Amino acid sequence: MNRREFIKLSGLMGAGAALPPAFLSGCSEHPLPGSGEISVTPTICDICFWKCAGLVYQEDGKPWKVVGNKNDLHSKGTLCTRGTGGLAAYSDPDRLKRPLLRTKTKGKQGFQEVSWETALDFIAERMHGIAETHGADRLAMFSHGSGGAHFKHLLKAFGCGSFAAPSFAQCRGPRDVAFRQTFGECPGSPERTDMANSRCIVLIGSHIGENLHNGQVQMLAEAISNNATLITVDPRFSVAASKSRYWLPIKPGTDLALLLAWMHVIIKDGCYDRDYVQRYTYGFAELSRHVQAFTPEWAYLETGLSPELIRETALEMAKSAPATLVHPGRHVTWYGDDTQRLRAIAILNALLGSWGRKGGFYIPETVDLPKFPVPGYPVPESTVKVAKKGKYPLARQGLTNAVVDSSIGPDSHYKGWFVYGTNLPMVMPGIRPKLEQAADSLELIVVIDILPMEITGYADVILPECTYLERYDNLRNSQERKPSLALRAPVFKPKYDSKPGWWIAKQIGERLNLGDYFPWKDYGEVLDWQLRQVGSSLLEMQEIGVKNFPRTKPLYFRNGEDIRFETPTGKIELYATKLAKYGFDPLPRYTPPEEPPEGYYRLNYGRVPAHTGSRTTNNALLFELIPENSLWVNPLVATRWGLQNGDYVQLKNTAGIVSNRIRVRVTERIRPDSVFMAHGFGHTAKRMRLTSGVGADDTELMTNIKIDPIMGATGMRANFVTFVKEAI
Ligand code: SF4
C-alpha cells in the first residue's frame, strides 16, 4: 500500500445525498423586495483573478446581491456574470465544513473530521519535524488567489523560499519573460493595455469575450463602438472573431510564422515608427536581416493564410500606429516555443511604437503602500531555484512542474507542501501520475481550499477556508491607470467551521513560535495601519470600498522624452542580449508544429463566459447558465465519424488516455484539423455534487507536454485526440 493513497472524499464521508430541489436556485431562493433593512459591505470579487471591487447588499441580514463599485477602474462599476454569481460560492452546500485529517483504520486510509486545534497541532508538529530533519527550506507552496499571501508570510517566516503558482508556468510566464527581455517590464495584471483608445487591436488566440476579464471586455467593446479595426487570429471563429473586421483562421501552431511575415512587411514597406525605433530600440539591423526571408508567400505555406491577407492586415496595423495594440494575451503556454512567439508580439509592438503610447500600452501606477511592520524574514537555505536544476535562467518565478518533479522519491528536495486555492490535477497538464508519486514521498501535504476539489484527495490535512465574502484579505493595490486601493471586508460570519486564511496562518505561526510575525488579533488592524499611512482608514474604506489616488507620473511617454528601459542595453531590445548570453535565439525563430497522426485532431481549449476554469463549475448560479462543456467539431469531421449535434463522445489522446463523455457541437466555426472544448469541466471529485462527472476534462488529455527551453513552462496545445463514440 502507498504511504498516501489518493482518496475521493465521497467514499469516506458517505456518498453525497441527493441535491435538494432548491439547490439550483442558489441564494436567490426567496426573492427580496428591497424594502427591508439594507446593509452594504465592500468586497473584492474572488471568482477570478481580475479582482473587481464590488458591494454586497444584504436585506434584513440575508444575502441579496453583489454589484460593481462605480469608483473601481477594474470593473468600471459592473461585475461580470461570474462575479454576480459570487453569492452562490458562499451558499454552496458542498463547501468544506470542518478540518479533515488523513487516518488509517484497519489498513484503510480515510479522512476524519477533527477540531482546528488537532489539525493545526498536527501541521505544526510535522513542519517542525521536517525543519529538524531536513531544514525549513524543504517546504514548498503552490498558490493561486489573494489569500495565499497569508501562507506565504507564514512560510517565509519559517525559513522557506519555495513558492510556485500555475499562473506562471501554466499561463502567462512566457509572456512576462518575453516582454521583460524586450521592454524590461511585463504587461502585468490587469494588463496595461490602452484598448479603449486603440484604433487597431490584434488578438492572437486571445478569447476576450469568452474570457470575461471584466475591464478588458468593456474596453474592447468601447474600441469596437469607436470603430477600431479588430484583427483576430484564431483557428476558431471565436466571439472576438465574430466582432472583427479580419478573421485569420490560422493553422494551429504557426502563429510565429505569421508574426515574422507581418514584421517583414512592416519593415520592407518602411511603415514602422522610424523615430521611435531609432530613439528607443536596439538591434533593428539584426531584426531586418532576420525577417528578410519571411515573406507573406513563405508564411502562406505555413499558416494557410493568403499572402494578400497577411499584407493587408500588416498595413492596417501600421496605418493606426502607435494606437495599435498587438495584445500580449494571457494564457500563452501552447507549443513550447512560447517565449519566442511572445517575443515576436513584443517586437511587433515596438516596431509600431505602441509601448508607452496612447492606444497601445499605458504606464501603470500603484499606491506606495507600506508593509505592516514585522521582523525581517530569515534567509532560506535554498529557494525555488533549486527545483530548476540549473535550467531556465530567465524564469523569475517558481515553476510548479519543477517543484513537483523535485518532490518525488526518497532523495527528493521537498518534503512538504502547502497547496492554497489551486486544484493542481486540473490545472497542470497530465500531472496526476506525478502527483501520486509526490504524495507517496512527501511527509506533509496541507491543502487549504473552499471546496472538496480533486487536490484534497492527496492531502494529509484539509483546512476549510471561508469564502471571500466572509474574510479580510490584503488591500488590492494592483496596477491601473490611477493608483487605487480596494478593500475586501467580511460580509457574513464564516459558515460552518471554516476560517479566514489570515487566522489559520497566524494559528500555525504561533504554534511554531513565530508569534512576532503575527502581532494582530484581527486582520482589520493590519489594514487600518496600512491605510492610515496613506491618509485613509479602515473606517473610511468600509464606507467607500475603493479609493483612487492622483497619478504622480504621466500616463504615456512624452514626445521625444529620453527613457532608459530596464534591459541590459537600456533600450527596447529587438535583439535580446540576455537571450544571446544564455545561448538562446536572440531573435524569434519559428519551429513548425507537429502534425496530428491520421484520424487525430489537435485539442484546442478555452473558456466559457460563465466559468473560471474548474473553480466555478459547482457554483449553482453559474452551473445553471452553463452546466457542461461541449466539443466543437467541423462538419467534415462530423460526417467522417458519423457524429451529430448533441451526440456524446469520449476522446482518446495519442497516449491512450480516454476522457469522460462530452456532447458534440457540429459547427463551421472550427477548422477541420482541430477540435475545441472549454476548460474546467469533467470533475472527478464526487463531493462536488453538481459538477462531478459532468463534461470532459481537457487537462487530463494533455500528455504531450512541450517544455519551453527558455523559462520552463508547459506547452499544452501539442495534444491530439480521436473519437470514441459511445455507439461505435
Ligand atoms: Fe469577479 Fe468577473 Fe471581475 Fe473576475 S472579472 S473578479 S469574476 S467580476
Brief digest:
The chain has 728 residues and is α/β, with parallel strands linked by helices. 29% of the residues lie in helices and 16% in strands.
Would you mind describing this structure in some detail?
This protein is α/β, with parallel strands linked by helices. It has 23 helices and 26 strands. The strands form 7 sheets. It has a 7-stranded mixed sheet. Strands 20-22-21-26-19-23 form a 6-stranded mixed sheet. Helix 8 (239-242) links the parallel strand 9 and strand 10 (246-248). The two termini are 38 Å apart.
Number of strands: 26
Distance between the termini: 38 Å
Major beta sheet, strand line-up: 5-4-15-14-13-6-7
Percent helix, as a range, is 25-40%
Task: Report the total helices.
Answer: 23
Architecture blueprint of SSEs:
Blueprint: H1 9-13, E1 38-44, E2 53-59, E3 62-68, H2 81-84, H3 87-90, E4 100-105, E5 108-113, H4 116-133, E6 139-143, H5 148-158, E7 163-164, H6 166-183, E8 200-204, H7 214-225, E9 229-233, H8 239-242, E10 246-248, H9 255-268, H10 274-280, E11 281-282, H11 284-291, H12 296-303, H13 307-320, E12 324-326, H14 338-352, H15 400-405, E13 416-420, H16 424-427, H17 432-441, E14 444-449, E15 461-464, E16 484-486, H18 501-511, H19 523-533, H20 538-544, E17 546-548, E18 572-573, H21 577-581, E19 601-606, H22 620-625, E20 630-633, H23 635-641, E21 648-653, E22 662-666, E23 674-678, E24 706-707, E25 714-715, E26 720-725
Parallel strand pairs: 6-7, 6-13, 8-9, 8-12, 9-10, 11-18, 13-14, 14-15, 19-23, 20-22
Antiparallel strand pairs: 1-2, 2-3, 4-5, 4-15, 16-17, 19-26, 21-22, 21-26, 24-25
Helix pairs in contact: 4-18, 5-18, 6-14, 9-12, 9-13, 9-14, 12-13
Iron/sulfur cluster binds at residues 45, 47-48, 50-52, 75, 79-80, 82-83, 212-214.
